[in-house]
Amino acid sequence: MKKTLALFSLGLGINLFNPLPIAFSQVSPTPPPAALKLVDIGTNCKPARACLGWDEQLFLGHGGLKSDRQSLLKSIDNSLSYLQTPKAIAVYNDYPIKEITLDRVRRSLRRFRQLVATAKSPAQLQASVKREFAFYKSVGDDNQGKVKFTAYYAPIYQASRTRTAQYKYPIYRVPSDFEQWTKPHPKRVELEGVDGLLGNKSRLNGLEMFWLRDRFQAYMIHIQGSAKLNLTDGTQTSVGFVRGTDYPWTSIGRLLFQDGKLSKEELNMPGIMRYFQKNPKSMDNYLPRWERFIFFKETKGEPATGSISVPLVPERSIATDKALMPPGALAVINGSFPYPDRSGKLVNRQVSRFVLDQDTGSAIKGPGRVDYFLGYGDLAGDRAGITVATGSIYYLLLK
After folding, report:
1. Helices 102-118 and 86-93: crossing angle, nearest 10°?
2. CA 122, CA 58: separation in Å to the nearest integer?
3. Burial classification of residue 95, based on how many CB atoms lie within 10 Å of its CB (0-12 exposed, 13-18 middle, 19 or more buried)
4. What's the rounded mean pLDDT across residues 369-389?
5. CA distances from 100 to 180, 229, 319, 324, 365 (A)
6. Would you state the pLDDT for residue 84?
7. Is residue 47 reached through a cis peptide bond, with omega within 30 degrees of 0 on the bond before it?
8. DSSP letters of 184-224?
9. What DSSP string describes 80-97?
10. Which terminus of the chain is more exposed, N or C, with fewer CB under 10 A?
């Protein structure tokens, strides 16, 4: 959703300065190494349920999970729609790995869709994919395939179309002259104030769309890039990312940790929320340190949309660095993610999940970062808030 990485990311947000080459140098710049490498995953992995492509969530009666086969088929269709656009054609014309072409990605999705629609079990789908598809593994952040997973979601909040004593924290539409704003852009504190209540003193006065009861909720909409809103008049709507000012991601959680406000064990979304609930005035200190400011449009209940302009599907859409990874393509992620057990407690389980690469984020940089879309509402938020995992990602293309 052209979003920013969720607050619970542990990333430091450090940008390394890379000096420009001397202008008169005759040495050609070295191209960046390929982010994906063709690998042989073998055929002798046992037990099969512990191997790549064992996606039990697609099938009823496996793993105690409700089947989401239709969701995966929908996500495939979304990517196929994107691959028909001029934007996709332009991107793949310049994609650095020459054997990964738009036509090959499209054919791969069509064939995979047939396999998903007809497979009777995880084992049957796994075997078909291994037989027909080549696996391109991300080199990760260590050139050995190590990938860090975080997760994001779209919150559901109470909101009002008008300001009241209770609903006083606004989110804004994009200014009509935003393209003419000079850089450096105004910082967050200049646009909304230290306490988020700059009001009619802000240059954004009159651009308020909706008002939230809780400042941190308004901030979370900036972080996640979209939200569903239950309005005080009894109606429902939604908002989505349009534009943002030109500043990098800053991890507020990391700042709290560095200042001794949170322990390492508390460095997750539940821990951050508990801290601000107990210390609400601290938001005046920490929230403005993420200097970027996000503008929205009302999407009237439409699902959250990724950077390739297709709807995101819970647990079937991911965000990666689109300067490196093939947009709209099929992938399989392998990692440990939290799921509720029968008592409702969140416990980690190792999964191998087929996903579509449909989004990006300003903090999702390099081949070693993947953000996993977990859906809408409190449970998705609880799961996303504690998702920090190490695993691997493979892109699948027909042989």
Report:
1. 120
2. 8
3. middle
4. 93
5. 38, 40, 19, 12, 20
6. 97
7. yes
8. SPPPHHHHH-TTS--GGGSTTTT-EEEEES-HHHHHHHHHH
9. HHHTTSHHHHHHHHT-SS
10. C
CA distances from 363 to 166, 206, 337, 355 (A): 33, 30, 20, 20
Using alpha carbons only, what angle is made at residue 151 by residues 146 and 152, rounded to the nearest 5 degrees?
150
Mode of pairing for the β-strands spanning 369-376 and 147-154: parallel
Scanning the structure block, which residue is given the tokens 């450096």? 184
Distance CA 153, CA 233 (A): 25
C-alpha dihedral, 69 to 73 to 79 to 85, nearest 10°: -160
Alpha-helical runs (H) found in the chain: 69-82, 86-93, 102-118, 122-132, 188-192, 215-224, 252-258, 269-278, 283-286, 377-385
Q: Give the integer Cα–Cα distance in Å for 154 and 370.
A: 17
pLDDT at 32: 58
Long-range contacts of 299-302 (CB under 8 A, 24+ apart): 299/226, 299/237, 299/238, 299/239, 299/240, 300/237, 300/238, 301/228, 301/236, 301/237, 301/238, 302/238, 302/240
Cβ neighbour number for residue 133 with a 10 Å cutoff = 22
Token digits of residue 363: 């903090």
* 43-65 confidence digits (pLDDT tens): 677 787 888 999 999 997 665 56
Neighbours of 25 (CB within 10 A): 8
> How confident is the model over 103-126, as pLDDT tens digits?
999 999 999 999 999 999 999 999
Query: Which residues make beta-bridge pairs with 156?
Result: 228
What's the N-to-C CA distance of the chain in angstroms? 31
Q: Residue 307 in contact with residue 319, Cβ under 8 Å?
A: yes
Q: What percent of the chain has pLDDT above 70?
A: 90
Q: Quote the pLDDT of residue 65.
A: 65
Q: Does residue 337 surpass a pLDDT of 70?
A: yes
CA–CA separation, 96 vs 33, rounded Å?
10
Q: Report yes or no: 155 and 379 within 8 Å, Cβ to Cβ.
A: no
Contacts of 234 (CB under 8 A, 6+ apart): none
Torsion of CA 102, 108, 113, 118, to 10 degrees: 160
pTM equals: 0.82
